[in-house]
Design goal:
- It is a single chain.
- The chain is α/β, with parallel strands linked by helices.
- The chain folds into 2 domains: 174 residues, NAD(P)-binding Rossmann-like Domain (Rossmann fold), CATH 3.40.50.720; 154 residues, Orthogonal Bundle (N-(1-d-carboxylethyl)-l-norvaline Dehydrogenase, domain 2).
- The chain contains 13 helices and 12 strands.
- The strands form 2 sheets. The chain has an 8-stranded mixed sheet, sandwiched between helices.
- Helix 1 links the parallel strand 1 and strand 2.
- Helix 6 crosses helix 11 and helix 12 packs across helix 13.
- The longest helix is centred in the middle third of the chain and has 22 residues.
- The radius of gyration is 20 Å and the shape is globular.
- The N and C termini lie far apart (57 Å).
- The mean pLDDT is 92.
């Protein structure tokens, strides 16, 4: 693999995948994007990708194909930016395109790295935490809505020369850090998404409305406590997220003062991000499945394997599965069932 010029493919032309592909291409990398839809592939081939927001305004021409099977061979880095629900079929489709030094980097929500490694092999798998925001305004028209960084690492913590190559490529998008505890960083983000994204899908409220409700804040706290109990059983050190939220300190203490501090912090988060709408809620509104199996579902599955009870996370998963199946409505009333 050439450190200066690895060949790169990005699978998924949504907000994260499209911006990542466009800014690496804009920095001089040899990048091809896989779009899933023929119409979008034609549009990108004709007009490129339009990126605006925190990294400025860019019109970036690049080659695009609709399906993985149409992808060129010989890519050194493959960034997987599909929905987590598309992970397994995408990973299987990639197998004919892997060579000995190919690395597949997951840019997906939740913890997908273990499932990815089962298909492509742990030696090909690199974990990545995406700590910045983006929105698709229209196909091929993408806004970077917040600054941030990437964090990358191997899932077993081993040193890997390819990480330096991946870091250099991703630095063209945003600053990138290499960690020897990628699972602890991924799990930290998973806990936040399991609270905010999943509960938003349960009730249909914006974050500010949701976290103004004490009952919902109690569920928020219980999701975190269960997740941390599972992490302890896994022997996993959960990293501080955003440089501020230390889950160990947040969940310790049962007294009135500790409870008040937790609720105050959650209220402040709710106020700061009061207009945020859950990505899982948006998926449900479009008639698409959520990524619940890779969020709260990951916590519940690990809990079952390790004998750790996770009743609140279990309930979140079951409620969202019922909403997906059409047997339950999206409503704040769903929370009445949590402690019935």
């Amino acid at each position: 693999m050439s450190v200066a010029k690895p060949r790169i493919a990005v699978i998924g032309a949504g907000a994260i995948g499209g911006i990542t592909a466009a800014l690496m291409k804009n920095a001089g990398y040899d990048v091809e994007i896989v779009c899933k839809y023929d119409e979008l592939a034609r549009r990108i081939n004709d007009k490129g990708i339009y990126v605006f927001g925190f990294r400025g305004e860019h019109h970036v021409p690049m080659p695009a194909v609709a399906e993985i099977r149409e992808m060129r061979s010989g890519n050194d880095l493959i960034f997987l930016a599909t929905k987590a629900t598309d992970l397994i079929p995408a990973a299987k489709a990639l197998l004919p395109f892997l060579h000995d030094k190919t690395r597949v980097i997951s840019l997906q929500n939740g913890i997908c790295e273990e499932a990815l490694a089962e298909v492509v092999g742990e030696e090909h798998t690199v974990g990545c935490v995406v700590e910045w925001g983006a929105t698709m305004h229209a196909p091929g028209e993408l806004e970077m809505t917040s600054d941030g960084e990437f964090v990358i690492g191997t899932i077993d913590g081993r040193e890997e020369p390819a990480l330096d190559v991946i870091k250099t490529a991703l630095d063209a998008v945003l600053p990138t850090t290499i960690t020897d505890n990628i699972m602890g960083r991924l799990y930290a983000k998973l806990i936040v998404n399991s609270c905010i994204t999943s509960l938003g899908a349960v009730c249909g409220l914006y974050m500010g409305q949701m976290l103004a409700d004490r009952k919902i804040r109690n569920i928020f706290i219980d999701i975190m406590r269960e997740a941390m109990a599972v992490a302890d059983a896994m022997g996993l050190h959960v990293e501080t997220i955003g440089g501020r939220l230390n889950y160990y300190k947040f969940t310790e203490g049962t007294g009135l003062l500790s409870q008040m501090q937790r609720h105050l912090m959650i209220r402040l988060i709710g106020f700061k991000y009061r207009k945020l709408k859950s990505s899982s809620l948006q998926s449900l509104e479009r008639g698409k499945p959520t990524e619940i199996d890779y969020l709260n579902g990951y916590i519940t599955e690990k809990g079952k394997q390790l004998g750790v009870p996770t009743p609140v996370n279990d309930k979140v998963v079951s409620v969202i599965k019922e909403i997906e199946a059409g047997t339950r409505e999206i409503s704040p009333k769903n929370f009445d069932d949590f402690y019935a």
